[in-house]
Design a protein that fits this description.
Layout (H helix, E strand, L loop, with lengths): L5 H6 L6 H23 L3 E3 L2 H25 L1 H6 L4 H16 L3 E3 L2 H22 L23
Antiparallel strand pairs: 1-2
Helix pairs in contact: 2-3, 2-6, 3-5, 5-6
C-alpha cells in the first residue's frame, strides 16, 4: 500500500512552512507600499508608527477578504474600463482603512486614488522582485503495477 505524502502538503499549506513566510512577506510589502504612499501622496497622513502598522494590517485583511467580493461585484465595470476601475476599488479600500484605523487619515477621494496607484505600483514591483521564479516540480504519484482481471482467458 502506498504511503501518503502528508508532510509535503502540510509544509505547503498557508498556515505552516513557506505559507507563513509568504504571508509575512506580503504584509511587509504592503507596509513598504503604504508608508511610501504616505510619504509621497499629499492627503494621506499617519500620526504614529502603531497607527501606520494598524493601517497596514487592516489594509492587508481588507485586501484578503473584501477585495475579492468587490472584484466580483464590479467585474462588468472593470471589463468595461479595461481594468482601470480596479484603481477605484483600491481607493475605496484605502478610504475604508482610513475610516477604520484611528491615526491614519485619507482626506478625500483623489488622495485615495493617488495612494492606491502608488501602493499598487510599489506592491507590483516588490512582488516581482521577491517572487520565486523557479519552475515548480510536478507532482509524482507512485505507479501501481497493472492488475490482470482475467488471466485464464
Amino acid at each position: 500500500m502506498p504511503t501518503p505524502h502528508v508532510t509535503r502538503e502540510i509544509n505547503s499549506s498557508s498556515f505552516l512552512g513557506s505559507g507563513v513566510r509568504a504571508a509575512v512577506v506580503r504584509v511587509l510589502i504592503t507596509g513598504i507600499a503604504v508608508f511610501l504612499a504616505v510619504m509621497v501622496v499629499p492627503g494621506l497622513e499617519v500620526t504614529s508608527f502603531p497607527a501606520g502598522l494598524a493601517a497596514v494590517l487592516v489594509l492587508t485583511i481588507l485586501n484578503l477578504l473584501v477585495r475579492p467580493l468587490l472584484f466580483v461585484l464590479t467585474l462588468p465595470l472593470i471589463v468595461l474600463t479595461l481594468g482601470l476601475f480596479l484603481i477605484v476599488v483600491n481607493a475605496l479600500l484605502l478610504e475604508l482603512t482610513g475610516y477604520l484605523v484611528e491615526g491614519f487619515s485619507v482626506t478625500g477621494f483623489w488622495p485615495a486614488v493617488g495612494g492606491a496607484v502608488v501602493i499598487s505600483l510599489v506592491t507590483m514591483i516588490l512582488n516581482l522582485w521577491t517572487s520565486d521564479r523557479r519552475p515548480k516540480e510536478p507532482r509524482s504519484f507512485p505507479q501501481r503495477p497493472p492488475t490482470i482481471i482475467n488471466p485464464g482467458e
